[in-house]
């Protein structure tokens, strides 16, 4: 098996791109990725992996593999496929690309793309609810946001916090997103604003809920031989892993335990011969403070019931012990659905390359990006290392 | 639309029928196919009492398509007295009165309307126990 490297990357701004369609967004991301890798030509791409959660439900397009291979003018003789695992779609597409490159494919293109803002909130909520169990959850009108909200209320009950305890998460996300030119929300918020925000699904308020928006991001994934020919710092994907849990939240022994999040992070770190304490910067699925909290605790960064306390002391900021959302996270960068995984890996790669600008984590050399589908029914983790 | 799909679920939705393990007595709800390492004969149909308590809840203000007519509506994870958790709407209650641990009981109510040509879908919801 050969080592696997990030050879190029690019992403569109995240937003309400009313004037642009899915093909247009994916094309821009792929062009930017190629432009970032001057030594690589399109004809070298040996496979296309597309991750998208909502392309059928909210855009009406199937076969995104063939569709985008044609848009990009890739060879008709290479495999091109689309992978769906709700919010973990493009992280899982990247996992597949890593497998292929490890086994000898010289170069793969991975694209995460969502085009959702042609629809209003009700259709978006219904599309997101498809990540849950259709008979046992979605039929009862339960939304993904309401499921996180129920976990938040239970967490407050078990550990004796008030809702304010989660304010540090969106405050950190917005502080960082304000410095990211691609972010959906480029403004800071404070605890007072958080306290006054209107409810979306109690106890989750508007400032603790991400907004689903349009965007596309792309990565060129290369094997060691090709990577050696390229300039710049080499970012290696040192460990990748996928784990699953029951889509139905009520079928879990302890709903506050994201067991797939724990398993995928630990298996990925094990494959990289690293431990939790070795990671300098994190990207998590953090549409709400409770989501980041449960992931941090599942992975083992903090004991159950303590992550909000550490967050209040600054642990999740770029200068803290476990920096998260350094580009704004799901809350401020924007929730790009199944495309999120590629945005996450790009942010980790920027951090490790030392090009993350105002939110740079000092001396970051190892990072972990984790994407969840639904409430962690699918969990995909990628460990990245900058080689010296 | 989906008439057969809703009909198939009738024992689950109207009678709260799950499964009980013949040897261990474990109850699960709703019924599910045996996993690959289970003996299919180990699980028998079992009707749950419909009593339980609120494990957690939320009140939805942004409804998905098909549920807009409900306006604001409470949903919950209910811990049934036989052990399983179940996801359902709450009904006949005020948001201000709801609390984790509150005793609730199953009632049969309309879940959704599949449109002019469709069927009215009924199923379980939970309400605070009537004293």
TrEMBL record, chain A:
<keyword id="KW-0808">Transferase</keyword>
<dbReference type="Pfam" id="PF00108">
    <property type="entry name" value="Thiolase_N"/>
</dbReference>
<dbReference type="GO" id="GO:0016747">
    <property type="term" value="F:acyltransferase activity, transferring groups other than amino-acyl groups"/>
</dbReference>
<protein>
    <submittedName>
        <fullName>Acetyl-CoA acetyltransferase</fullName>
    </submittedName>
</protein>
<dbReference type="InterPro" id="IPR055140">
    <property type="entry name" value="Thiolase_C_2"/>
</dbReference>
<dbReference type="InterPro" id="IPR020616">
    <property type="entry name" value="Thiolase_N"/>
</dbReference>
<dbReference type="Pfam" id="PF22691">
    <property type="entry name" value="Thiolase_C_1"/>
</dbReference>
<feature type="domain" description="Thiolase N-terminal">
    <location>
        <begin position="4"/>
        <end position="224"/>
    </location>
</feature>
<feature type="domain" description="Thiolase C-terminal">
    <location>
        <begin position="242"/>
        <end position="385"/>
    </location>
</feature>
<dbReference type="InterPro" id="IPR016039">
    <property type="entry name" value="Thiolase-like"/>
</dbReference>
<dbReference type="InterPro" id="IPR002155">
    <property type="entry name" value="Thiolase"/>
</dbReference>
UniProtKB/TrEMBL annotation, chain B:
<dbReference type="InterPro" id="IPR052513">
    <property type="entry name" value="Thioester_dehydratase-like"/>
</dbReference>
<protein>
    <recommendedName>
        <fullName>ChsH2 C-terminal OB-fold domain-containing protein</fullName>
    </recommendedName>
</protein>
<dbReference type="InterPro" id="IPR002878">
    <property type="entry name" value="ChsH2_C"/>
</dbReference>
<feature type="domain" description="ChsH2 C-terminal OB-fold">
    <location>
        <begin position="47"/>
        <end position="109"/>
    </location>
</feature>
<dbReference type="Pfam" id="PF01796">
    <property type="entry name" value="OB_ChsH2_C"/>
</dbReference>
<dbReference type="InterPro" id="IPR012340">
    <property type="entry name" value="NA-bd_OB-fold"/>
</dbReference>
């Amino acid at each position: 098996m050969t080592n696997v490297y990030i050879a190029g990357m690019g992403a569109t701004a995240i937003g309400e791109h009313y004037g642009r369609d899915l093909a247009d967004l994916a094309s821009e991301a792929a062009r930017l990725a190629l432009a970032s890798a001057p030594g690589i030509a399109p004809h070298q791409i040996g496979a296309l992996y597309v991750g998208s959660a909502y392309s059928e439900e909210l855009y009406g397009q199937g076969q995104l593999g063939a569709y985008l291979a044609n848009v990009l003018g890739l060879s008709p003789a290479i495999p091109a496929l689309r992978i769906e695992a709700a919010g973990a779609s493009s992280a899982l597409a990247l996992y597949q690309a890593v497998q292929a490159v490890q086994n000898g494919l010289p170069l793969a293109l991975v694209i995460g793309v969502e085009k959702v803002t042609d629809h209003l909130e009700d259709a978006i909520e219904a599309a997101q609810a498809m990540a849950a169990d259709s008979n046992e959850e979605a039929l009862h009108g339960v939304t993904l946001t309401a499921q996180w909200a129920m976990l938040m209320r239970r967490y407050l009950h078990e550990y004796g916090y008030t809702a304010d305890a989660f304010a540090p998460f969106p405050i950190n996300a917005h502080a960082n997103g304000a410095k990211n030119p691609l972010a959906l929300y480029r403004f800071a918020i404070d605890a007072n604003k958080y306290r006054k925000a209107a409810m979306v699904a109690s106890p989750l308020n508007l400032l603790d809920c991400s907004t689903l928006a349009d965007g596309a991001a792309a990565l060129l994934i290369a094997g060691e031989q090709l990577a050696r020919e390229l300039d710049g710092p080499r970012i290696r994907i040192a460990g990748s892993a996928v784990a699953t849990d029951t889509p139905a939240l009520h079928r879990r022994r302890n709903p506050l335990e994201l067991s797939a999040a724990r398993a995928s992070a630990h298996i990925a770190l094990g494959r990289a011969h690293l431990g939790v304490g070795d990671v300098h910067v994190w990207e998590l699925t953090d549409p709400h403070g409770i989501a980041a909290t449960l992931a941090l605790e599942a992975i083992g960064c903090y004991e159950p019931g303590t992550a909000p306390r550490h967050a209040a002391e600054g642990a999740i900021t770029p200068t803290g012990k476990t920096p998260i959302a350094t580009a704004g996270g799901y809350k401020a960068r924007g929730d790009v659905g199944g495309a999120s995984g590629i945005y996450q890996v790009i942010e980790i790669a920027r951090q490790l390359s030392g090009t993350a600008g105002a939110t740079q984590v000092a001396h970051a050399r190892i990072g972990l990006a984790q994407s969840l589908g639904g409430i962690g029914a699918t969990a995909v983790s990628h460990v990245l290392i900058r080689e010296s | 639309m989906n008439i057969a799909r809703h009909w198939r679920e009738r024992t689950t939705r109207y009678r709260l029928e799950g499964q009980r393990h013949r040897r261990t007595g474990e109850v699960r709800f709703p019924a599910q196919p045996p996993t690959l390492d289970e003996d299919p004969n180990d699980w028998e149909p079992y009707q749950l009492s419909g009593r339980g308590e609120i494990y957690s809840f939320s009140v939805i203000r942004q409804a998905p398509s098909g549920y807009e007519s409900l306006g604001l509506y409470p949903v919950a994870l209910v811990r049934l007295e036989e052990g399983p958790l179940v996801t359902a709407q709450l009904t006949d209650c005020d948001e201000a009165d709801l609390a984790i641990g509150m005793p609730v009981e199953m009632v049969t109510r309309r879940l959704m309307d599949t449109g002019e040509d469709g069927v009215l879908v009924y199923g379980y919801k939970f309400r605070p126990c009537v004293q």
